[in-house]
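User: My instructor asked us to take a sequence, write out its structure as tokens, and then describe one feature of it. I'm not sure where to start. Here is the sequence I was given:
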Amino acid sequence: YTTLSALGILTLLLGLGTPLALQAALLYLIAHAAYKGSLFMMAGNVDHEAGSRNLKELAGLKKAMPISALSALLAAASMAGLPLLLGFVAKEFFYGATLDTIFGSPWLSALALISSALMALASGLVTLKVFFGKKITSPQTPHQGPLSLWLGALLLALASLAFGLFPEKTLGPLLALSLKNFGSNLSWQTVHLWHGLTTELILSLITFGLAGLLYWQWKRFRQITGAFKSLSFLKAVKIYDHFIEGLVWIAKQITSLLQNTYLRYYLLSMLAFVLILAFTPWWNSLKELSLKLEPAPSLLDYLLVGLILVATLGTIRARTRLVALLSLGVSGVGVSLIYLTHGAPDLAMTQLLVETLTVLLFVFVLYQLPPFSHFSMGLARLRDGLLSILVGAFITTLLLLSQGDFLNQELKNFFGAYSLSQAQGRNIVNVILVDFRALDTLGEITVLSLAALGVFALLKLKLGKESKP
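Assistant: Let's start with the prediction itself. The structure tokens for your sequence are:
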């Protein structure tokens, strides 16, 4: 549960998203890894040498296991956020992040204080009585284990101490570099053990006082919390289980709606989702749009675009599949000719090969298909037409924006500068596919090959009589 609490704190800090919150998340992550790793190994050590991990069966192990006691004390102190340890520094930044936020709510800092106090209480419960109780109790005679059992826990505990005493010297350069991964404009705030009398320090003192009070009144506190057992339906585990059940039910409903075996609806869903996702940036980019084409299109360009439009309209208005296929082929040839006239013969050849193979594949299955009919009604055609216009406008906008300075030019300039000098290729598109992004291309080829293999297996599959519907 303390690990879940730490993960919740990290999620909160990342969600706040301020530079200070991100820095606090990095510090808290290191602090949590150090003290929790040490405590986990210490628990295994105690289980091995004392015969139990049950807190009710263990007490006063300090004399029999002094090194384990030292490791547990340092790790628990870091978990509680006591001074001189990294947990204290991380907790100070945690409080600072809750104060330095656009939400500006004192409730956020109050919740942070309560969670830190409970974390400190938990650290005391798992170490103080176990190692520093007055009477030694354990299922078997405890003793200090071999080096292999206690060395790892001790090193992590000492790391918490070293990082806490000298946080900037030990962690500053590494975490400052890590912070840059969140954004190049983020600056690292120098980390010190002592930042003076600040609001964060006052919150830390209140945390220690609250944790000490809860530890002193632990039995009474347990009685108070035990009164809530009647509200078992509000337990996090049950709420989580009900949430997962509801999530599965919703998933079934969505799946039955979307996975309806109709290819046109699959295509409709994908295109609509892309439009919804990109609508806001697309709409905002319209003010940057320039309809001035450079260089200006030639007469041949207009003729080829006209050919593609006529072929596309022919595909839409076709009454037979053969005419639709011929129109699609003409449209593809028009695209190939545009590539050719603009100095990309390899793209033209690729486009032409794809169009030829596509038409041939359709021809092979042409006579195996049911009769060519029009099933779409008026509303369906209106929906499809509207979606087609929106998708076309979206793609056109992207193409127009690509020739301006609206998009990030760093990658464009990089590929243009290094394609010939580093990759020995003049065609930038080809160089990107087979050199700069060669692994991506290999992955795409692998996926397509596996898909083709799966389709081939399905075509060759022969069902037995007992398997047929």
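For the description part of your assignment, you could build on this observation: The mean pLDDT is 81. Try explaining in your own words what that tells you about the chain.
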